[in-house]
Amino acid sequence: MKKNPKLPKPTKYSKRTIIRMPKLALARIPAKLPKKLKFRRRTHVDDKLVEALQNLPRITNETVAEHREEVLSSARKYIYPLSHSKRRVIVITSVLLTVAVFGFIGYCVTALYKTQSTGTFTYGVTQVIPFPVAKAGKSWVSYESYLFELRHTMHYYETQQHENFDSKSGKKHLTELKRQALAQVISDAYTKQLAKQQDVSISTAEVNDQVTLVRSQNRLGSNDQVFRSVLNEFWGWTVNDFERELREQLLAQKVTAKLNTGADTRAQSALRSLNSGTDFATLAKQVSEDAPTKASGGDYGISIDKSNRDIAPQVSNELFQLPVGKYSDVINASYGLEIVKVSSIDGSKVRGAHILFNFQPISTYVKPLADKNPASRYIQIN
Q1: Across-strand partners of 337?
Q2: Per-domain boundaries in the chain
Q3: Nearest to 189 by CA among 122, 137, 241
Q4: CATH 3.10.50 for the 261-359 domain, yes or no
Q5: pLDDT > 80? residue 372
Q6: Does residue 185 contact residue 191 with C-beta atoms inside 8 Å?
Q7: Which pLDDT band holds residue 9 (cuts at 50, 70, 90)?
Q8: What CATH architecture does domain 130-259 belong to?
């Protein structure tokens, strides 16, 4: 057994030992310490994230189907409300669109059939939507064709005659123009029925030939720019509008010529007389149907140039191709059949005579058809 080691003897300082600490470098201590140190604590979201990660199931080949169904079932609660919202949007959009369409149609019906607007917007609508203005027998007459006929006449009177259609006399005149335009488009509808019965049609080549003939005589301008300008200034037309109107006129002329066999018979008889040696002036006094020139042997009584608008383009064209003293074959001048003769040529002008055989107006052939199948008008013009 070992003895306890001896302890040192106590000194006079044993009861109270003083330990001297080294002096601190005060300069290293900041003058002010922050009252409270900021430490980042774990938030509630972090705790949830940790918990979610801990609870995240492990997906294996055996459990993939189960987890897939679990994910899809969770997503369905968002898909179904979304599908419902889409259906609701479609329904609301359809309702608004239907209301807008019916409102637009209601406005158009009011503007066309009640107030009978002739404005540019209304005309544009009729070019897209085939509103009817009348029915001629079995043929519908479009409101667009009526406004086409009316608007170019109004344009002429407004720009060339300075007519004010807002004045009392102007309103009265406008009413008359409306009646004429409606009667014209109904007559055109019956004319097309007659043309179909008679197997008559107008080709694009015939229209182009007529345009070329008119322009060659400088009746509507010497070049394309002037031609378009004249059409727009006088009638508010484009070139296509002019060709459309020309086609209607040519069709009526062709139908009339085919149905009016009496004029053709008389004209051919007169031509045979001339060919057999009968004097032109003598024959004109006997058979011509032009009252103003008949007594003078068919003499026009004026010098004619190519741009003379009192002479039909077809007749003028023949006059400037004939030598002096010669007469032409029978010419279809739209209003009748003519035979012309050149009396003299003076530079760019000629003097001549003609024998005219008038056609019956197209109304002569339209009337029986209209009486059999009366037209129904959908606007009341007062």
Answers
A1: 332, 357
A2: 67-115, 130-259, 261-359
A3: 137
A4: yes
A5: yes
A6: no
A7: low
A8: Orthogonal Bundle (1.10)
